[in-house]
Amino acid sequence: MKRHLLTIGGGFAGIVLTVVLLLTGASAIQGRQSAATPDFALETPDMADLPDLGGEAIGADDGQAPINTTDDSSGTIVPQEKSVRDIVPEQFGLPEEVIAQPLERVEPRVPLSQTVARPEPVPTVLRHPVALSAGLIQFGEQRLQLDGILPQKADRVCGEAGRTWPCGVIARTALRNFIRARALLCNVPKNGWQGTLTTTCRLNNADPAAWLAERGWAEVPEGSPLADKVEAARKARLGFFGNDPRTVDTTAVPLDQTAAPGNAETDIDLTDQGL
Predict the structure, then answer these.
(1) What share of the chain is helix, strand, coil (3-state, %, to 5)?
(2) Residue 220 lies in a domain
(3) Which end of the chain is more exposed for a tag (fewer CB within 10 A), N or C?
(4) What DSSP designation does 172 have?
(5) Domain total of the chain
């Protein structure tokens, strides 16, 4: 038991001795640093003690205007005005001597690159046409808009409120019946085209665009050669400018006016007709 107490007591004594040694060493080091670094004050020079540089300032060669300062009797620094070096070139602001002179037209410069001429369209037979709307025809993956008429939509609706009719679908059906899957002869680029091409076509000896304009299934832009045909169709109330062509007037005839054999009101002698 005494041996255990001695061991524990010796351990505590060693710890205390170590702490004392560390504190003593730290105090000695701080004393040496204080003795090696004396205190000194930073002095700021007075402006009056600066030598006179003869009116030259640092940075005068870099294009900036030098600014000199002087010390007056009150000790306040007063900037001195110096002229700024002019860096504006002559006639930069277009003085009257320049703008007052008459202008002279010169020859245009030579273009940097030669203009690439667009290939002229050539008549080409296009097969398997499908009318997408009145004037828009598709050939496989390519689309063609008939020249001279405005593009139309297949979902166009005509008529007044309450009496509308799908004129866009009927116009498309009319063009499909006219083409009947026959080949068209159209003026297209030699190597084909991308997107929707606007050009003229022929179907035998007929012009599909003129055929649509005559029947009122087209509208034309300003200056179109088909404007007269569209105006005539408008006055005749055909196509887009008329009523639903599917409507048929089937007014019933009154029974008392129906002609019948032996009716005295008909004034027709059936025996004279050989009936």
Answers:
(1) 30, 15, 55
(2) yes
(3) N
(4) H
(5) 1
